[in-house]
Specification:
Strand content: 35-45%
Number of strands: 13
Order of helices and strands: EEHEEEEEEEEEEHE
Helix content: under 10%
Largest sheet: 6 strands, antiparallel, barrel
Strand order of the largest sheet: 7-8-9-12-11-10
Distance between the termini: 25 Å
Length: about 170
């Protein structure tokens, strides 16, 4: 499959609390699919959270996926500053952080907490990782508003919440 066929983007390589190597992506992109390939290697969904729109894929070890070298952001992101992502459809892209859910520093379990950026994503970018200017992981692409919406934006599920609730640590590949 080429980039034009992408249904989602791998966000990061991680390790579960039981030591299993996994890749993250958006649940809505891979739910109920058995034809999942990462860099030409067949994989499968081995866990997911509907609330967080996160799916865990079995890690095909011949595939190299970067983990956040700058760590994971533990404080609210700065607004009106650039961030970046590398989507399967959009490629390396800069975007602007516009807002975030004020509950980000709380232990909320029944709602995905989000950071909002300009609507610079495209179909197939779901699951991509968003990084701040210091290389810290901010969140994972979940959805984009419709074109022409009164406020066009992309929602990124807060990475710290995903890692905590899915019991993940960034891979040390």
């Amino acid at each position: 499959m080429g980039e034009e066929d992408a249904i989602g983007t791998v966000g990061m390589a991680a390790v579960t609390d039981v030591g299993e190597a996994v890749l993250t992506t958006a649940r809505h992109a891979v739910a109920d699919r058995t034809d999942l390939y990462v860099s030409g290697s067949l994989t499968s969904v081995i866990g997911s959270s509907e609330i967080l729109d996160c799916a865990l894929l079995a890690h095909p070890y011949q595939v190299h996926v970067d983990s956040p070298s700058g760590g994971v952001l533990d404080v609210p992101p700065r607004i009106q500053v650039f961030a970046s992502f590398d989507g399967a459809r959009s490629g390396p892209t800069k975007t602007m952080v516009r807002s975030f859910d004020m509950r980000i520093m709380s232990e909320v379990r029944n709602t995905a907490l989000c950071v909002l950026t300009d609507a610079d994503t495209a179909g197939g970018d779901s699951g991509a990782a968003l990084y701040d200017g210091d290389g810290k992981l901010i969140g994972f692409c979940s959805e984009r508003t419709e074109l022409g919406a009164p406020f066009e934006c992309t929602s990124w599920v807060w990475a710290r919440q995903v890692l905590n609730m899915m019991r993940l640590e960034p891979s040390k590949e």
